[in-house]
Amino acid sequence: MNDRPTAVELVEAVRRFLASEVAPALGDARLRFGVLIAAHVLGVVGREVTTEEADLAAEWAELAALLGTEGSAPARLTELRSAVRRQNEETVERIRAGAFDEAEAFRRAAAVLRRGVERKLGTAGLR
Predict the structure, then answer these.
(1) How far apart, in whole angstroms, are the C-alpha atoms of residue 64 and residue 57?
(2) What is the pLDDT at residue 1?
(3) 67 near 91, Cβ under 8 Å?
(4) How does DSSP classify residue 55?
(5) pTM for this prediction
(6) pLDDT at 6
(7) Alpha carbon distances (Å) from 12 to 16, 19, 28
(8) 60-to-43, 77, 80, 120 alpha-carbon distances in Å
(9) Which portions of the chain are predicted below pLDDT 50?
(10) Calpha distance 50→46 (Å, rounded)
(11) pLDDT value, residue 57
(12) How many CA atoms are closer than 13 Å to the CA of 26, on its beta-carbon side?
């Protein structure tokens, strides 16, 4: 593991290079567009790397409260990703089964899901 540059710094350096040096030098509009998309994707990746664990932990906690899940969030990032995916799948199943049709349950579920979407949009740079 290297101290500097960090993975985030490397991703940001490549993103800046593509957006400010490569894209403007390209005469082909399609190729320039592709390079700008690649630069944008690198920006999303850079933001996700810095916030993923905290965002997943927040999503896990909110979904656990909504679903009535006991216990604590997994400590390892890979396990946390899987746990959040399972919670989302369970939430979808419960929505389909009508578990959140009652007005108060619907409001609670909608608030939790909205916060999750807002976190994801913030990572994508769309908020």
Answers:
(1) 10
(2) 57
(3) yes
(4) H
(5) 0.75
(6) 87
(7) 6, 10, 24
(8) 24, 12, 8, 14
(9) none
(10) 7
(11) 96
(12) 16
